[in-house]
């Protein structure tokens, strides 16, 4: 038999120790993290034959850090060991299970370590690998020890028979591809190596190898019940609960504060005997499904979650504790209460953090066979008995490792592996081993071996049908009654790729209304960008983040890997701020007519004692009063109504738009945010000026067009100068030009099937390459009125833009009107004007929604105010450049040059504004943010009557009708703005 048989065989591993919990213990341990000798072999024909031999001279080998992913070493400037490769569903090798190609990059690792006497004095000495991707073999002191698979799962081997006090030597051979790869086809980068920690553990004889803490909570009695599975003769101590070295064989009813994600109360416990002490933290809670609802401690809960992959742009799937903590803190700061560990068990320290900070966890097993779908699921391992052991092995290793974490409420069998007997067997095993938790698996549509009806990316209509139980029945009628009795979960929805996701508020509205809906998890947490450095051009030297195809992959899935709520460097994207407000712990509704503010708690357990309330009153966006509002402490789910503050009741001194905003902020500091951190807000307009969502024009339809007759020479009307054909050339002596614009730099959601696919609708109309004709010109003493007809080559569908310029006292007014010409149908990206203004105008101040970007269906996270930002700050650097940075409902804006205002624009009714240092064409052409270079002469200002929403069509529903810009809405379309010189004010 070949010495590498394990690479291609079905065994989950050989010679391993039975799986058990990861315990913090008094027994000796030695970390093997640090430098190892390393050599990368090209494949099985290139191996070091005596790799395991202590005599092998490896002094000329490289050194590599353990843990790490070898493809990430040296990035961005000096990568040494191949490159990461991205595929979503496709296997990057022929689908010939369980075999993988001979061309199989293989990392050979060696190191020595000094073992203190105590490790060998008695008992056993183990070595534990927390994660090795994807298959590996181990030697110690020249002896073959065993092999393993299951990349994101722990593996332990017994070294007792080979180790000795003093210097010992280990060697590990790690193969990028193995039979295990068929079960690990997650939507992520293929990277390899010993990517989590390695430890040597002393297991004293008579020690405590494993502990299973059962900490239930009886909400009716307010009692916790503590039961421990531990070796006979061990004792249990929990000072706080008055338990002092009681027998672990007993069961203890104790008055406790329960654990919930909102109140993550943990109790330190010690399990001990004469030879060993292990320390754990118990959280008391009981999880159950009753009447189609998910109850924790008897209370229905709503999961407001994210799917989290483990990623860092420099280190790949190797994460520092600091990075994990950052993720958890960012989630808590943005009101997220749940994590699905898509699609594998995370670094175990992450679950400690979830216990500590409070997050509900769906712990997902390392199983995904998605690539088989591209071959009609032929030979899918999920239903093939030869793979059964491999499946069972994986669920056992996950459950055993993570069984003591109160945060884990669901075991998930895996992702996108279709359905089959092996998955059902995993479920049965988990249920037997741990009846206290629930089983999740989205692929089991019939719901005959799961506890929750889980789906992905369903439309609002479908979700509502499920909520009302009017959805179609199961395929096997005998499953229907059970499925209808289960709660429904969107384990993935709202695809956060690029600009978006839009329409979160509508989903949340459904979740908040129907008890059967227990919430959802946004896809996904982070853009998995890989750090790169731009090597030439004006941005040479700058870092950016690569995606699929940037590493020479022959097959790849482009930027589908950049679909997170945080950018690769963990900067929150506007989507995260939007989500935070949509799932805020309190809903604030202000009713100016009644003079009241209503605050409703959306919490399930905690009261609002930790939340303070403060109001801000602003006149035309300028803050005129701030103060505290006394809101009584609300129990979970309660509502209170208080009066508007007195300052809000007195009328403003002059005619203006007066708004009040009530902010809910942290009253004191928490583990995850400082005092004053904003959790939610609500706002209302106090004065009666109405703010239409879309302006209507006062201009009549354009005159029957005829060729314009050039006037005598350049025209000047007030501060505006036009060329002979009526085209704007200057405003207040600054060069400014203007043209109609219908295109936006394609967002990811515009490209895919569920959306108004650009390729089928917008491109054929040539909206990205409009040609223009001045179709009409009329001039008198203080008016210039023109009609510009614009259209794309080939088509007779065009748009007439009427522009009427009128000199007014302190500036010049522009009235616009947009009329579609020909049989238009469907959606249009935007309708408005694109102005080229001087590049020196580097700052914008606006009165409208802000501070972040907003689109028709992403307006929850922004409020009405006056905001200032540099042109740089106005851009959102999406990992793949695309339309971004729009500010909506803008009534007034001011452009400034070095903080010196140069141009003011007042809109009669609110418009949308986008300001950027490059044109839409330039933005469209860029593949990465470093491809974008500010234009030499111009900045580009879009003033839009409307823009199409963003939706979630990259992998979900498109823009909802209410947020779409469709041809039939273009009736009396147009807006009026006045350009003024700020010096006049
Ligand atoms: C779904 C996957 O579960 C997830 O891993 C990710 O790939 C996501 O799509 C898209 O980014 S599967 C999809 C075919 C619905």
TrEMBL record:
Beta galactosidase small chain/ domain mapped to chain residues: 716-978
GO-annotated molecular function: beta-galactosidase activity; carbohydrate binding
Methyltransferase in keyword set: no
Location of the region described as Disordered in the Swiss-Prot/TrEMBL record: 693-712
InterPro entries: B-gal_small/dom_5, Bact_Beta-galactosidase, Beta-gal/glucu_dom_sf, Gal_mutarotase_sf_dom, Galactose-bd-like_sf, GH, GH-type_carb-bd, Glyco_hydro_2
Pfam family, one: LacZ_4
TM segment ranges: none
GO cellular component, one term: beta-galactosidase complex
The entry's keywords: Glycosidase, Hydrolase
Keyword field contains Hydrolase: yes
Entry-linked PROSITE patterns: GLYCOSYL_HYDROL_F2_1, GLYCOSYL_HYDROL_F2_2
EC number: 3.2.1.23
GO biological process, one term: lactose catabolic process
Enzymatic reactions: Hydrolysis of terminal non-reducing beta-D-galactose residues in beta-D-galactosides
Entry's family note: Belongs to the glycosyl hydrolase 2 family.
Protein name according to UniProt: Beta-galactosidase
Source organism per UniProt: Kribbella sindirgiensis
Source species taxonomy: Bacteria, Bacillati, Actinomycetota, Actinomycetes, Propionibacteriales
